[in-house]
Amino acid sequence: MxxxxxxxxxxxxxxxxxxxxxVDKPAGLTVHNEPGHDLCTIARDYIRKKPALFAPVCPDLDxxxxxxxxxxxxxxxxxxxxxxxxxxxxxxxxxxSRSVKKRYIAILHGPLTDPQTDDGWGVWQWxxxxxxxxxxxxxxxxxxxxxxxxxxxMAQSAHYSLAEIELLTGRKHQIRRHAKLASHPVVGDDxxxxxxxxxxxxxxxxxxxxxxxxxxxxxxxxxxxxxxTIETPEIPIQMRELFEKDRIGDNxxxxxxxxx
Length: 260
Hints:
Layout: E1 3-5, E2 10-17, E3 20-25, H1 39-49, E4 66-67, E5 76-82, H2 85-96, E6 101-109, E7 122-124, E8 128-129, E9 144-145, E10 149-156, E11 160-167, H3 174-181, H4 195-205, E12 212-220, E13 227-231, H5 237-247
């Protein structure tokens, strides 16, 4: 597998084609807000150093490398990057029309209620404001618009639920805000979750990230007739280890019941 290498990071390239590449972004790396240190800069500089490895991508030097969609700094997983204007426009229109299927894996606090539906999927439908608020008001202030997030329980442990999540709309921090409104905040969420729980996880489990991972994208690529699904090979190790340890029984006192 190809990787984008910087001084301290190796970022897997999951797929690539004429004018685009999809990478597995690590948690804690901003996409484009820290020039010289963000993902787009790392990708641009490394591709320029190794043009033979990335010949199909063939970046437009004037355009650079740009993200086609959003992924929070704290979230890991698939990010689609465009290397020329035409490809950027082609892919962006699909996100704008909401024809792209985006699925995430999340570790949520507490036992998530089984939706009891024929397909096993439940829906969170709280309207959300543009202002993303915080743990005290995750719906945000001001005018709210309808938002939908689908979820499916994959497994449960003593204190957590492992869930597959699909975005049907695209408000900022939508998964994190809906999870909080459902009283099952994403583990490690320092904006919407419990500060006391975050401290407990750091001190007792060395868990220092957001428990949210962009697992797959289904989209039409330039020059292709059908849809293509791009997936990350596995759940990040920190998320996997935390859930499995709790699943086999960690009897330490749990401190994450209330917001701090």
